[in-house]
Amino acid sequence: MNSNSKQMLQALKTEAANSVNVNLKQGYNGDLTSKQAGSIGGEMVKRMIAYAEQNMK
Questions:
Q1: 1-57, pLDDT tens digit by residue?
Q2: Quick one: pLDDT at residue 53?
Q3: Most CB within 10 Å of its CB: which of 3, 26, 30, 46?
Q4: What is the pTM assigned to this prediction?
Q5: CB–CB of 17/40 below 8 Å?
């Protein structure tokens, strides 16, 4: 994965975390609960599916 892709993925993760009211720290976030981490991942998947659907039309 190139640097630009990593930055875009990090931005998506940050936006998803903000939308589900989870505060991410710079660097290590291993103190998140499973529920918080799952909420972030679920929100990221929803956004990626919506992006794909919009760009397939």
A1: 898 999 999 999 999 999 999 999 999 999 999 999 999 999 999 999 999 999 997
A2: 96
A3: 46
A4: 0.86
A5: yes
Structure tokens belonging to residue 46: 């929803």
Are 19 and 40 in contact by the 8 Å Cβ rule? The answer is no
Nearest C-alpha neighbor of 48 from the set 20, 3, 16: 16
Only one residue has tokens 């998506």, namely: 12
**40 neighbors 13 (Cβ within 8 angstroms):** yes
CA atoms within 13 A on the CB side of 8: 7
Task: Kindly state the helix (H) or strand (E) to which residue 51 belongs, with its residue range.
Answer: helix 34-55
Q: Using N-to-C axis directions, what is the helix angle for 3-19 and 34-55, rounded to 10°?
A: 120
CA–CA distance, 20 with 46 (Å, rounded to integer): 12
